[in-house]
Amino acid sequence: MPTFGALLKKKKTHSTGSKDTPASPTVAEASSTLPSENPELNRPAGRESSDKAGSAVNANTNTSNNNNSHSIKGTSPDTQMNPAASTNQQSAQGANSSSHHNSHHHHLPHIGSIKSIINPTHGHHGTTQGNADANYAQTSQVQGSKSQARQTKGKYSLEDFSLQRTLGTGSFGRVHLVQSRHNHRFYAIKVLKKAQVVKMKQVEHTNDERRMLQRVKHPFLITLWGTFQDSKNLYMVMDFVEGGELFSLLRKSQRFPNPVAKFYAAEVTLALEYLHSQHIIYRDLKPENLLLDRHGHLKITDFGFAKEVPDITWTLCGTPDYLAPEVVSSKGYNKSVDWWSLGILIFEMLCGFTPFWDSGSPVKIYENILRGKIKFPPYMHPDAVDLLSQLITPDLTKRLGNLHGGPEDVKTHPWFAEVTWDRLLRKDIDAPYVPPVRAGQGDASQFDKYPEESEAYGAQGEDPYYNLFTEF
Ligand SMILES: Nc1ncnc2c1ncn2[C@@H]1O[C@H](COP(=O)(O)OP(=O)(O)OP(=O)(O)O)[C@@H](O)[C@H]1O
């Protein structure tokens, strides 16, 4: 078993660049906006893009242990409000972190005292947003892949926001907490340096990220409100997911009790089911990319590797620990890779380390993946062992999720027996851990602190990459 210290570091995303097979024509730019979007601010502006992934989440329902008291009439206290919309003002206190969250701190958060998190009898006080999600859930099943894309291109500009602290950094830039100058709500803006994106051959992935995020709408996926760009950077405006990364919670907890892991795994399963129904493979599942909203529900962030793939693709990308053997050995692959990664995620949540981890060396990890031997610790529930054996299996004809029954096979596995899937989708089940955040205040205390950069955004000037990010 790896030492705990070695595991505190975040896992790096890897990519060989954009070599995917040509995906089917991407969804056309939206012809209509969502009803909640405010058309006020449709500026013909530049574009921005973002790349790579990190982790951020956001959520929108009240649960019985929700301590938020900040509802604005008629809306969820959460986000789901167009940054440009002028609405009732919330207190515009500057965001800011007070208590820095120390990821090396080993105290256990209050997740041990979970009520039966999967038990539907606990639960629920849906807010407006929660109901909106529920409505969505119902209609989405019917509509299948006919979802409407939000209009995101060139929708905002830097002047619409006041920039606050850095929430996280990635390979191409950083993510900032920002406050809308219009509705005074808080958002997260991912800033990507174009030069860095180009240098790392991630132009196609960055454009894909924007396109995929624009398309998706699901309770457990981050919402992208808009994108823009200046001569140096691409910008993506997203919900601010206040509760921090699942990664931090997991490292503090060392490992999750069986029902806690089950709760998070179930929410991820629903998100994967949805993405796959849209013919999108996610390809970068890991706790670093799962954010907790203020109520403790998950939001998957970082669509830097998400791809529309009707059939198969070949790119080597993702994070070594989580790669399926067919990716490592450069065979064509499909959505089955996400089910493999779900297995790795569940393993990591239950054990505190990934099954193929090996002194942090990607090459050794790849060897272990191809060898395919997993040691399940004795404390792992037999149902979990059975599920993981079926997810983390190199044989694509045997991998759960990739069989005839599709995601249903995963959802009906005995390990998930107590999960009431429809209620979970409505966020009608209390999360096992509610992050201690001051809701709606731009409270970034759940995020690590990062040194701020002095270079100002919004530079005018020549843009050598003007033709590469036209969708932003
Ligand atoms: N919507 C959000 N709300 C709150 N925090 C966020 C949000 N999006 C991202 N973050 C924070 O910023 C970090 C970096 O974001 P992200 O992973 O998307 O960037 P990246 O450039 O893709 O990173 P990487 O190179 O690791 O893939 C995340 O780990 C998370 O902590």
Automatic annotation (TrEMBL):
One of its GO terms (molecular function) is cAMP-dependent protein kinase activity. InterPro entries: AGC-kinase_C (IPR000961), Kinase-like_dom_sf (IPR011009), Prot_kinase_dom (IPR000719), Protein_kinase_ATP_BS (IPR017441), Ser/Thr_kinase_AS (IPR008271). Residues 417-472 form the AGC-kinase C-terminal domain. Residues 1-108 are annotated as: Disordered. Keywords: ATP-binding, Kinase, Nucleotide-binding, Serine/threonine-protein kinase, Transferase. Residues 15-36, 70-83 have a biased composition (Polar residues). GO terms for cellular component: cAMP-dependent protein kinase complex; cytosol; fungal-type vacuole; nucleoplasm. PROSITE patterns: AGC_KINASE_CTER, PROTEIN_KINASE_ATP, PROTEIN_KINASE_DOM, PROTEIN_KINASE_ST. It catalyses: L-threonyl-[protein] + ATP = O-phospho-L-threonyl-[protein] + ADP + H(+); L-seryl-[protein] + ATP = O-phospho-L-seryl-[protein] + ADP + H(+). It is an enzyme of class 2 (transferase). ATP binds at K190. This is cAMP-dependent protein kinase. It comes from Talaromyces atroroseus.
